[in-house]
Amino acid sequence: MLTTPTPPIEFKHKGLTNLQLQQVLDYIQTHLDRDLSLAELAEVINISPTYFASLFKQAIEISPRQYVIQQRTGIGVASLASPETLVEIEATAVLK
Prior knowledge:
Helix content: 55-70%
Number of strands: 0
Strand content: under 5%
Distance between the termini: 22 Å
Shape: elongated
CATH topology: Arc Repressor Mutant, subunit A
Order of helices and strands: HHHHH
CATH class: Mainly Alpha
Number of domains: 1
């Protein structure tokens, strides 16, 4: 799995604490390769899913779902920009 460092987030000092936000962002980065539920993310910092969604959006101004999609899209774009990935795609296409 391709991992990228968590990009800096402009923290608004609302909602989640810096530590809580970092714990959730790290968890998301580590588990981007599978489905992530709101309940699962909320459990990382031991709060209810509804409350978590509200605090997360206050902290970084997008919903947890939007953040996960952005991270997945960013990895996909970075993968396609990598010359090694293009060679792998070509090799896979030749094998089919």
